[in-house]
Amino acid sequence: MLDRIAGSGLFSADELARAKQEPVPDARRPMPLSAPHASDEAQSASNGARIIRLTIDGRLQRRLERLALERAAALGEAMSGAIVVVENATGEILARVASPDYFDVRRAGQVDLTRALRSPGSALKPFIYGLGFEDGLVHPETLIEDRPIRYGDYAPENFDLTFQGTVTVRRALQMSLNVPAVAVLDAVGPSRLLARLGEAGASLQLPKHETAGLALGLGGIGVRLIDLTALYSGLARQGTVAPLHERNDAPASPEKRLMEPVAAWYVGDVLRGAPPPPNALGGRIAFKTGTSYGYRDAWAVGFDGKYTIGVWVGRPDGAPVTGLVGRTAAAPILFDAFARLAQTPRMLPPPPNGILSSRTSQLPPPLRRFAARGNQGEAMTPKVRIVFPPNGASLALSSDGAALDPIAIKITGGTPPLNVLVNGLPFETTNAPRTVLFAPDGPGFMRLTVTDSTGAADSVTVRLQ
């Protein structure tokens, strides 16, 4: 065999001589398989090349493949995840875990989830504020209102259905408040945000027949994990995006502008103070999480002075997953991935010229308080809606041995009194939006409906199993 290989010219005579001195294996060993999606892609684009050299770090790739598999198994048999690690300075992809297990049919293992279009939830908010910083509309210490507002028929709500009142922009982004982000997006313009992210190299896709609107800032668009990771690496690079590549022979590509250096630094400084997940140290990386509508996608993307890591968690088929939230499902993976780099986090770049470090009271008067455009900010009652469980969700029943545990029905908006119906039968009337506990009879499908005093209604159908 070695004599036949010698004819290929791939190996020197010395290498072949050393190989002949090695003992012949007497047992079959498992074939190593690492970064299979990257290998498939490289092979299909190889044009017949025998050796293809990738930028992927084999040791790091294997560490993160194990991490993805462990976390997916803990989340459920149909759950999947993806991880991308990028070196900020070069744009080299050092690891790309496109699924936890290439051969796992339950998790659609051969689907490349780093390139799948998914809703980013709140993960685009840093770029909204970045444009606001760039335009001089806001500063991290600018005061902004978090109160019920309406834009035509659109009334954004916060994830926890509460409002914080007057907060700083820094606090609004760190808490991922929806209302302030939409107010700033209304000022900078959804189409402008979409164009800027596209110019920076991201492939974004709006729903069919939709134009860029305010829902864009809360996840109303499709984005790929690999593109989102590249955008965040642009924040680490103080406003320029290095096109990502995972082949050593990739042609050099020019950097692309994301935002001004001062604006990018402000965003990174704010995100560095975001509250970390439980049992993690804060202040070491700048990061942001995201949760798509209906609990279908959980995201966490973060960066330090040298690396950017993006994480996505969810089901490949896009089915909702009860309780799937970026902070609890994706952020712990992000922090573990940084820990597996085997290096202490690098400091973020120093502030560029032009940074204004001031408390709110010391800012120039136009920056002390953000004024929303038009007549937004008026008190209003959001439309009645069932926010949990989401429509189409599958809920696992649990029991204390005597009876099935109750299920929480979370309602927001509407004009009291509210009427709750379970499978068409009245269940409970409440005078204010709140959480209603319902004790199910057993497995099966359940239809929940809530109506308010004006006749507005909302319904969801869920499966109990």
Describe this protein's structure:
The protein is of the alpha+beta class. It has two domains: 67-368, Beta-lactamase (3-Layer(aba) Sandwich), CATH 3.40.710; 385-464, Immunoglobulins (Immunoglobulin-like), CATH 2.60.40. Helices cover 26% and strands 19% of the residues. The chain is built from twelve helices and 17 strands. The chain has a five-stranded antiparallel β-sheet, sandwiched between helices. A five-stranded mixed β-sheet has the order 11-17-16-13-14, with no helix packed on it. Helix 4 runs antiparallel to helix 11. The longest helix has 18 residues, at 58-75. The protein is globular and about 85 Å long. The termini are far apart.
Major sheet: 5 strands, antiparallel
What is the spatial order of strands in the main beta sheet?
2-1-9-8-7
- SSE topology string: HHHHEEHEEHHHHEEHEEEHHEEEEEEEE
- The unreliable regions are 374-379
According to CATH, what is the topology of the largest domain? Beta-lactamase
Number of strands: 17
Beta content comes to 15-25%
CATH top-level class of the largest domain: Alpha Beta
